[in-house]
Amino acid sequence: MLTDFTFPSEEMIASFVGKNILGAPQFSKEELEAVLGVAAFYEKALKEGKRLWDMDGKVMAALFFEPSTRTRLSFETAMHRLGGRVITLAESPENQISSTSKGETVHDTIKMVDNYADVIVIRSPRTGDAEIAANAASHPVVNAGDGFGQHPSQALLDMYTIVKEKGNPEGLTVAMIGDLKYGRTVHSLVDFLKYYKCRLVMASPDELKMPESIVQKMLDNGVEVKFCATIDEAVAEADIIYMTRVQKERFADLAEYDAVKDMFLMNGETLQHFKPGAVIMHALPRVNEISLDVDDYPGAAYFRQAGNGLFVRMALLALTTGNVRGAFKPEWAL
Ligand code: NCD
Fold first, then answer.
1. Which of 25, 96, 281, 314 is the most buried (most CB within 10 A)?
2. 1 assigned to some structural domain
3. Do 69 and 164 share a domain, yes or no?
4. d(CA 156, CA 25)
5. What φ, ψ does residue 165 adopt, rounded to 5°?
6. Is 269 found in the same domain as 232?
7. Catalytic-labelled residue, pool 70, 199, 217, 226
8. Sign (positive/negative) of CA torsion 256, 259, 260, 266?
9. Domain check: are 279 and 328 in the same one?
10. Ligand 1 site-directed mutation target among 122, 154, 189, 288, most atoms within 8 Å of CB
11. Cα–Cα distance between 103 and 87 in angstroms, integer?
12. Is 36 in the pocket of ligand 1 (CB under 6 A)?
């Protein structure tokens, strides 16, 4: 039972070496809990003021072909906190600075970067690019979000946050609200929640419903899924309320975005419908889906959630490269 974080066995740690982190579905429950255990170990080490050298001499390449604030900065900080170094490509489809603008493919870009880095973190607007990258690389590839596909490091930090905020996740009711069609964070998170028999409550515009294949997968796994027409109805039974941004960049027609962007908004009035102790999460960035007056609510966990990303990403980098060393050699954590 996941009531606390447990540092994993040496065998479990060894099993991560060289692995790509492409999506939440690849994780067993034991592997998920192993990552959280290592994340907790690093969080404790940092809180104790330790200086870590687990990734000393190693280089992480951050290849971001789509805007990012938290994910890129927390991966970079994770590497720095582990004593490693970082090379970064940060561009967007509108502002291409790499040779992708000259027509270089992701495959070829990765073939190059693989010569420079020990681990590659990639974000792309195209679903499936992380897998293309993984096939091209000899070093581990971590998917930092591929289109409306997967965002596994976010889902891992979301689980870490749920446990820190609520304790044992077993049987919790999780409301997912907003853009469940294009929101890759919820596409990943459901695969972890299924291990704890969480109930899912979904509220979204009809145009932005959770893909049928994902809903079916949850049902096949014995997860109870309920659909609500309003945000007030959805929050009323939720222990965790996971708000999402309507993913403007995924709409081909902006008129369609305008038609749905303001349909599921949370404000101070929504709090009246909460169960006592309910926690609000959001991968961020928010646009207008959570109004500023909600920030003072004690269960508003979204900024704490973003902070947790650092520890989980430290764990992923060290695990996949075989550098979780502080635990075994205390002299590395001085
Ligand atoms: C999310 C993303 O990029 O998928 N952001 C993040 O990584 N923290 C969610 C979003 O952009 O809405």
1. 314
2. no
3. no
4. 12
5. -85, -35
6. yes
7. 70
8. positive
9. no
10. 154
11. 21
12. no
Length of the chain: 334
CATH label of the domain that carries residue 239: 3.40.50.1370
If phi over 0 gives left and psi between -120 and 50 gives alpha, with beta otherwise, what is residue 165? alpha
Q: With respect to residue 5, please indicate whether it lies within any of the assigned structural domains.
A: no
The stretches in the chain having pLDDT less than 70 are: 1-3, 326-334
Kindly write down the DSSP assignment for every residue of 115-165, as one continuous string: TT-SEEEEEESSTTHHHHHHHH-SS-EEEEEETTS--HHHHHHHHHHHHHH
Phi, psi of 177 (to 5 degrees): -130, 135
Q: Using a 6 Å cutoff on CB, does residue 184 contact ligand 1?
A: yes
Q: How many domains does the chain have?
A: 2
Among residues 125, 124, 127, 131, which one has the least CA distance to residue 22?
A: 131
Atom of ligand 1 nearest to the CA of 151: 4
How far apart CA 178 and CA 186 sit, in angstroms, is: 10
Which of 127, 185, 261, when mutated, tests ligand 1's pocket best, judged by the most ligand atoms within 8 Å of its CB?
Answer: 185
Q: What is the pLDDT of residues 199-253, one digit of tens each?
A: 999 999 999 999 999 999 999 999 999 999 999 999 999 999 999 999 999 999 9
